[in-house]
Amino acid sequence: MQINIDQTHWYDRIWAALIFFTRLPFWRLHQPPQECYATVVEHWPLAGWFTGGAMAATLYFGSWYLPYSIAVLLAIVVRLLITGALHEDGLADFLDGFGGGGSDRSRILSIMKDSHIGTYGVIGLILYELLLAAALLAMPVELAALTILAADPYSKMVTSQLVTMMPYARNEAEAKNRTVYRKMSWQAGVSLAIQGLLPMGLYLWYTGMRWDLIIFIPALVMYGLYMLIWRKIHGYTGDCCGAVCLLVELTVYLVVCTQ
């Protein structure tokens, strides 16, 4: 029997988000109704508390015993393992589709759905990981760890707006995960803002960083990518969300490096 999403419990929706966005064995503890997976983006920043926390802890405590450069690389590896490279897969597909599909909407969507990685995806992933590692290495270890804790949830909160700003580019049957995110209610939007802005607010208060640059420049990057996505395919996909999330997060690190 199909359940209305609004009839599901809030904790089921959180469980669904943690199961969907990580490879941690949350599913062994609880199996939420399938309908809850349409709401996972509403708790995406909360999953970022886990992934960002694990990455920051690996970097910070790893630097006690290992050279800082190795601690940075291990932190990146830990997040890749926890997420199953979910967002990196999206970034690679996004770059292949938008790089090789030209202005043909159907071709772009077809390339993004193809599981094989192309030249644009390979080069893009290499450059992304190099920039990520270089940005973290450019910061003192404590600042880098704190920035990760703030940037991960914040980038997911900003990227989640794509779901509200445009429709899904495919139909549910064509979706890779057979899931189409629902439009967010104002209550979900408030919850999402708290999840993403609370860590960022504490970070800005503690570090004294320029809040205008760190808040608005990544948001401008998201808007620019939104305009590109809308012009090319008139809707979002899961790959688009993963790619935008990583690029917005990377922007946070690059902005911090300039201060």
From TrEMBL:
<dbReference type="GO" id="GO:0009236">
    <property type="term" value="P:cobalamin biosynthetic process"/>
</dbReference>
<keyword id="KW-0812">Transmembrane</keyword>
<comment type="similarity">
    <text>Belongs to the CobS family.</text>
</comment>
<dbReference type="GO" id="GO:0005886">
    <property type="term" value="C:plasma membrane"/>
</dbReference>
<keyword id="KW-1003">Cell membrane</keyword>
<dbReference type="GO" id="GO:0051073">
    <property type="term" value="F:adenosylcobinamide-GDP ribazoletransferase activity"/>
</dbReference>
<protein>
    <recommendedName>
        <fullName>Adenosylcobinamide-GDP ribazoletransferase</fullName>
        <ecNumber>2.7.8.26</ecNumber>
    </recommendedName>
</protein>
<keyword id="KW-0808">Transferase</keyword>
<feature type="transmembrane region" description="Helical">
    <location>
        <begin position="236"/>
        <end position="256"/>
    </location>
</feature>
<keyword id="KW-0472">Membrane</keyword>
<dbReference type="Pfam" id="PF02654">
    <property type="entry name" value="CobS"/>
</dbReference>
<feature type="transmembrane region" description="Helical">
    <location>
        <begin position="117"/>
        <end position="139"/>
    </location>
</feature>
<feature type="transmembrane region" description="Helical">
    <location>
        <begin position="186"/>
        <end position="206"/>
    </location>
</feature>
<feature type="transmembrane region" description="Helical">
    <location>
        <begin position="213"/>
        <end position="230"/>
    </location>
</feature>
<feature type="transmembrane region" description="Helical">
    <location>
        <begin position="64"/>
        <end position="82"/>
    </location>
</feature>
<keyword id="KW-1133">Transmembrane helix</keyword>
<dbReference type="InterPro" id="IPR003805">
    <property type="entry name" value="CobS"/>
</dbReference>
<keyword id="KW-0169">Cobalamin biosynthesis</keyword>
<keyword id="KW-0460">Magnesium</keyword>
<comment type="function">
    <text>Joins adenosylcobinamide-GDP and alpha-ribazole to generate adenosylcobalamin (Ado-cobalamin). Also synthesizes adenosylcobalamin 5'-phosphate from adenosylcobinamide-GDP and alpha-ribazole 5'-phosphate.</text>
</comment>
<dbReference type="GO" id="GO:0008818">
    <property type="term" value="F:cobalamin 5'-phosphate synthase activity"/>
</dbReference>
<comment type="pathway">
    <text>Cofactor biosynthesis; adenosylcobalamin biosynthesis; adenosylcobalamin from cob(II)yrinate a,c-diamide: step 7/7.</text>
</comment>
